[in-house]
């Protein structure tokens, strides 16, 4: 017997009804979820528990008495002949076992066959076909009345406008989910950002917002897909015996279905399916938030019937939440191997995605500013599979005024060098590349690489050893006999005297290099091999380059303002100059010369670049051509002299062949420069 509800229960139930109604409106009508699904589910389950204990708290407008949200007034209403009910959720193995036990007891049988399917995280819709032609499509709405979105659904190529059979049923109602894949979602948000328009929170939000557009032309441009999951009404054709056979029938008639569906027996079969899908969820191209179990026998489904807002014959077994709410208590800045500064949120511990999370990436300064993330905020944290947790949303309504804005530091938190940021990039970078401990290993790997100082035998694993032992901090330490010598190297595991002697000989040989190689070895951002050659040829000496101003750098054909600023930032950092001077004192040298006469080898020639070249990046190839007086165009025309093509060349190559424009590779380009330079000289 239930007791009379105390005042605090009455007040709590009232607040829960209002809060859930607010969240429903945002989710179903505005397609803008305000909280993670897990938070919504907790509130809903709390209200159900209160109403179960105190039945007098149940009101006609309680969210527990309906499904979804009210239809938007902008769309015509569609009354569902068969209500689009929701599913009861299970979160534990015990709840699944209880579901199986209830079904067996109600049906009076020992073992049940179940149809198992992934639970799509999208927008549920109903499709009606008359005499084989698509005639009406509607959203779920509140479960009884939905929105007429027929015109929008007609734009989805995955929805057949005509059934694939000669004698179609007179009436067919199919239900399914409209979704957006993760890759399509990513591309859509990138396009939205480029157009200066609002981005979407997640693929579900994007799918719902795209389908519920008032202009079908907008929907048509969105990458939406439909998957069928239930046959609801069928007239003029025999009914199949089971749910799984009904789905097979729908597939033959032209409807897309999930390949991950299975038929199994007993509770142990359900749980085994759940484990497999949980393990595979992140490998799927679309989001799922659980799996659905349905009694396969359709006559058994009828006997089991429905209760309130959900059928007895089906249940949704949800995965652990991938989004949760917690408090952001601080922001620290980490420095990566490339020197990129990444702000990291320090969080109050929260269990999400199967693990306890205390840190989450904030990507960059722009990300923090665009989302208005402040220290002290309540935030939504997402962790999908093995992906690093990230802060995806702020809850500004929970602010109390104590929150503080974040400011990116002006100096590297690791080495104290100045922080710089390219105008076209979101990331900020430490300029102490040769000196910064965070960049140490990568800087050394680059310094020793074949196109740089070419220290044979000094690879990634050995560099890790030398750094971890504290023997090498900057490239200059490689040439310091007190730090690196044959005896020390021979003491390393799997090294030996012979290998140590070979490496010491390689280090000694590398002392004599070229100015271009040395510039490249410094690891200056945006300065690749071609740009290093260009700088060496123009200045002739390292000191001239180190002291060159921005105007002098940008005056060089092939050097833009971003590259020039990066060069200037590098040499303005005292730590980098100190390392360079120490390298010189330890014997690293090269021949210097008077600045080379400006090459005009490619003067009057127009080039188009396409595909991936074996050694040069697109930017380096462009810089090389322009350094020799040539012009680089974006498109192929009759005025194009040469197309330089690499692997995976596209339409530009085809256009060149059609117009008869000569097509050359990277090696031929370099020979052309050499030949014309000789002729010019």
**Which outline best applies?**
elongated
How many runs of DSSP E, i.e. beta strands? 28
Poorly predicted runs: none
How large is the share of residues in beta strands? 15-25%
Gap between N and C termini, in Å? 105 Å
By CATH, the superfamily of the largest domain comes out as DNA ligase/mRNA capping enzyme
SS element count, helices: 24
**Over all CA atoms, what is the radius of gyration?**
33 Å
* The CATH class of the largest domain: Alpha Beta
Q: Count the domains.
A: 5
- Mean pLDDT level: 89
CATH topology of the largest domain: D-amino Acid Aminotransferase, Chain A, domain 1
Quickly describe the structure.
The chain is an alpha+beta fold. The chain is built from 24 helices and 28 strands. α3 (93-107) runs antiparallel to α9 and α12 (440-448) crosses α13.
Can you describe this structure?
The relative contact order is 0.06. The chain has five domains: 7-65, Orthogonal Bundle (Helix Hairpins); 79-318, DNA ligase/mRNA capping enzyme (D-amino Acid Aminotransferase, Chain A, domain 1, 2-Layer Sandwich), CATH 3.30.470; 323-405, OB fold (Dihydrolipoamide Acetyltransferase, E2P) (Beta Barrel); 431-596, 5' to 3' exonuclease, C-terminal subdomain (DNA polymerase, domain 1, Orthogonal Bundle); 606-680, BRCT domain (Rossmann fold, 3-Layer(aba) Sandwich). The protein is an alpha+beta fold and 681 residues long. Helix 12 packs across helix 13 (460-468) and helix 16 packs across helix 17 (529-539). The strands form eight sheets. Strands 14, 15, 16, 18, 19, 21 and 22 form a seven-stranded antiparallel sheet that branches. The model has no long low-confidence stretch (mean pLDDT 89). It is elongated. It is built from 24 helices and 28 strands. The longest helix has 23 residues, at 7-29. Strand 4 (123-130) and strand 5 (133-139) form a beta hairpin.
């Amino acid at each position: 017997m239930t007791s009379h509800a105390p005042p605090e229960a009455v007040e709590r139930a009232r607040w829960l009804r209002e809060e859930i109604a607010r969240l429903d409106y945002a989710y179903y009508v505005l397609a803008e979820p305000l909280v993670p699904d897990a938070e919504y589910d907790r509130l809903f389950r709390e209200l159900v528990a209160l109403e179960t204990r105190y039945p007098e708290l149940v009101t006609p407008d309680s969210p527990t008495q309906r499904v979804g949200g009210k239809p938007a007034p902008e769309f015509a209403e569609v009354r569902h002949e068969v209500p689009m009910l929701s599913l009861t959720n299970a979160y534990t193995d015990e709840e699944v076992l209880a579901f199986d036990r209830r079904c067996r007891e109600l049906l009076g049988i020992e073992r049940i066959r179940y149809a198992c399917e992934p639970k799509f995280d999208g927008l549920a819709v109903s499709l009606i076909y008359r005499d084989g032609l698509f005639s009406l499509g509607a959203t779920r709405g509140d479960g009884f009345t939905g929105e007429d979105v027929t015109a929008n659904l007609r734009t989805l190529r995955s929805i057949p406008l005509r059934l694939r059979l000669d004698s179609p049923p007179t009436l067919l109602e199919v239900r399914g989910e409209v979704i957006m894949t993760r890759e399509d979602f990513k591309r859509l948000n990138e396009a939205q950002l480029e157009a200066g328009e609002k981005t979407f929170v997640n693929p579900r939000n994007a799918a719902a917002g795209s389908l519920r557009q008032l202009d079908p032309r907008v929907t048509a441009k969105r990458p939406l897909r439909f998957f069928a999951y239930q046959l609801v009404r069928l007239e003029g054709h025999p009914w199949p015996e089971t749910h799984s056979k009904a789905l097979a029938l729908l597939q033959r008639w032209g409807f897309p279905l999930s390949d991950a569906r299975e038929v199994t027996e007993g509770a142990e079969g359900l749980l085994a399916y759940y484990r497999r899908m949980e393990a595979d969820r992140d490998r799927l191209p679309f989001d799922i938030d659980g799996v659905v179990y349905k009694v396969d026998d359709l006559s058994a489904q009828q006997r089991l019937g429905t209760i309130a807002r959900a059928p007895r014959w089906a249940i949704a077994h949800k995965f652990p939440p991938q989004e949760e709410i917690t408090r952001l208590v601080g922001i620290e800045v980490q420095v990566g191997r490339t020197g990129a500064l990444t702000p990291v949120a320090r969080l109050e511990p929260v269990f999400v995605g199967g693990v306890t999370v205390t840190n989450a990436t904030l990507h960059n300064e722009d990300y923090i500013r665009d989302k208005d993330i402040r220290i002290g905020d309540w935030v939504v944290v997402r962790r999908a599979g093995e992906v690093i947790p990230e802060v995806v949303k702020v809850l500004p309504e929970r602010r109390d005024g104590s929150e503080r804005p974040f400011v990116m530091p002006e100096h590297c938190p690791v080495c104290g060098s100045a922080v710089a940021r390219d105008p076209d990039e979101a990331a900020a970078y430490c300029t102490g590349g040769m000196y910064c401990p965070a960049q140490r290993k990568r800087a050394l790997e680059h310094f020793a690489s074949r196109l740089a100082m070419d220290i044979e035998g000094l690879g990634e694993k050995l560099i890790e050893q030398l750094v971890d032992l504290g023997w090498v901090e900057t490239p200059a330490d490689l040439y310091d006999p007190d730090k690196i010598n044959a005896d020390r190297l021979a003491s390393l595991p799997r090294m030996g005297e012979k290998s140590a002697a070979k490496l010491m000989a390689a280090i000694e040989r590398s002392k004599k290099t070229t100015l271009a190689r040395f510039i490249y070895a410094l690891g200056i951002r945006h300065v690749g091999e071609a740009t290093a050659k260009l700088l060496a040829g123009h200045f002739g000496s390292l000191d001239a380059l180190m002291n060159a101003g921005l105007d002098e750098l940008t005056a060089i054909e092939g050097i833009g303002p971003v590259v020039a600023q990066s060069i200037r930032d590098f040499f303005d950092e005292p730590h980098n100059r100190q390392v360079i001077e120490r390298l010189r004192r330890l014997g690293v040298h090269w021949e210097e010369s008077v600045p080379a006469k400006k090459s005009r080898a490619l003067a009057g020639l127009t080039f188009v670049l396409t595909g991936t070249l074996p050694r040069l990046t697109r930017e380096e190839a462009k810089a090389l051509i322009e350094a020799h007086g040539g012009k680089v165009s974006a498109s192929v025309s009759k005025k194009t002299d040469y197309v330089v093509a690499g692997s995976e060349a596209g339409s530009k190559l085809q256009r060149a062949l059609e117009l008869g424009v000569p097509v050359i590779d990277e090696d031929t380009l370099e020979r052309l420069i050499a030949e014309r330079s000789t002729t010019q000289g």
